[in-house]
Fold each of these.
Amino acid sequence: MGGSETAAARELRALDQSLGRNFLRLTDRVFVACGYGVSTFSFVVGDRGIVAVDAGSAPGPSAEAIAELRRHTDLPILGLVYTHGHIDHTHGAVAFTEENPEIEIWAIKPFGTEARALARNRSSITMQRSLRQFGNLLPPQKKINTGIGPSVAAGNTSLGIVPEQRIRPRKRFETSATIRLGGVNLEVTHNPGETDDQVFVWFERDRAAFAGDNMYRSWPNLYAIRGTPYRDVRDWCESVDRIRALRPDHLVMGHSLPISGADEVSEAMEVYSRGLWHVYNATIEGINAGKTPDELVAEVRLPDDLAAHPLLREYYGNISWSVRAIFSGVLGWFDGNPTNLDPLHPADRARRIAGLAGGPEVLVSDAIDALAGGEAQWAAELCDLLLAMDFRPAEVRALKADALDELATNMLTTTGRNYLYTCAQDLRALPAVDST
Ligand SMILES: [Zn+2]
């Protein structure tokens, strides 16, 4: 590491100190567990019992957070409310059911909408893409953090290892609910954004809002490259504003450290809201001007003050991918250019382009030059043409792997870094010489 690190890697590594374990006392009644697993979860303490907001990502770290809580209070944990159905907020629930088998687990109805939509379409590829996005298959030295939490441990998929009945919601509500348990009163309200089953939790007594994954210290993941149904960005903007309208004194987010102080929360939510609305509105304007996604990603940018703001850096989500998601979410796959209604097969196009260039050998040497000249994206695109023709595939795979590594090391968005590094690793795992 050290001096040869890219600017992106240095910026990510600087986050490490804020992403470690931190058991915070936010108010006299609210404790927040950060860095216990990959997500943030909380405990709200009443006179006779405790209600948790989210369960963390894995039973072990969640049990350790509960042990930390026990240094402050012996009251029973009577309830648990999920902000949404993602496993990084639910799989820790085993630690809670072990504490109290009778615990009330609250969630909105329907719950787990995203996973269900993928399962319904037998979307098995999302597992592989998910492992790439989270870097599960990468050696530790290729990972820094997730930008909003510690990196996911190698080999730990967190998927399918938790008995479903131990974490399943037992109390369901339609659009909103008041949870009254052990002297704790929590208002829970549907707040679609990252998922359709997202809610926010409001603890009026201490003016603390729990935003789930609609907000954290990064540009949000308006599109997950593992592949998910459209996350309605207009809903997301409105959901951020719904929390903002309450003018909370404390804001606890689904990942990263909470924010305290009415002024600090107000500024943070203003920045987040303005950033999201800006990208959404600029994309919609561009769509209506007839621009294609490829053109829009070159144009839609945050204003400088927002782009530099630590809450909107592209650590986890990415603005270009958000723009593409808005386009396809609103209009579907067709970019509007009739040429693209029925384009050539990639192999056919590649052969014609190679013919124009003077043969595929020219593309190989151009790809080598491009990579050496710092144009890794162009090198990767040339490699794709060659692979489409199946031209010297072992050599071209190695070249493409180098190009993907180069793109990864310069990318700030951790999901993209992991995806690029993993695909490079996959390419190198294929035979290194062509069979003759
Ligand atoms: Zn999450």
Amino acid sequence: MIYKETLKIHSIESFGTHDGPGVRLVVFLQGCNIKCLYCQNADTIPTTGGTEYHISEIVQRAVNQKGYFGSKGGVTISGGEPLLQSKAVIELFKLLQSKGIHTNIDTNGTIVNTYSKELISNVADLVMFDIKHITESGFEQITGKQLYKQLFELIRLREESEKPFWLRYVLIPGYTDSVEQLTKVGEYFNDYKNIARFQILPYHKLGQYKWEQLGEKYRFANVPENTAEQINAAKQVLERYFDFVVG
Ligand code: SF4
């Protein structure tokens, strides 16, 4: 059966191991509502382009490889920004769940509307929120948008749903890695009970060439990548607040 909902997709990774628990089919959607200075997938930002897929095609692919998912894996919708296409993602997730497949969304959490709220609070089995910065001004500096409050509103909504979620945090030397900022992150989420994992994402420049291909300047060219010591130091601060910190 073909469902009428379609998704605009940038690319699909069949056996992803970095975007959620276990082995996953990872679907990168085309289009993002913000523009992070360090975006490693800058080619997914434009809302034009991408390839339209009926959601039934994605369900079929997931069913075909279900044997590889094991007890933990499943499907992750990443981007770009999945919440731009929340309505179709809801339909997709319900179909996947009816086939016993775990669903996960990797989001910047900054689009608040009826569909995104439904997806975040009622539908997705897991949500991974990217926290760009813990201060309003830092968030705007990195993303170019004043959408800080929207992110924390959606995280609160997920917490209230009492379903698990992960927080992901890119550790950018000189931007997000001070003890003060990390402490603030920990304190902000002190009373949250449904954070299943805090994931430190080391800053890297593997996507720099994509900015150049798009004819744009990569503005973090002079920001160094993290040392192992910096990652460990951040982990130690965050472990005071979160039960399961990985870095
Ligand atoms: S939210 Fe993700 S896809 Fe969008 S600009 Fe930022 S890093 Fe890139």
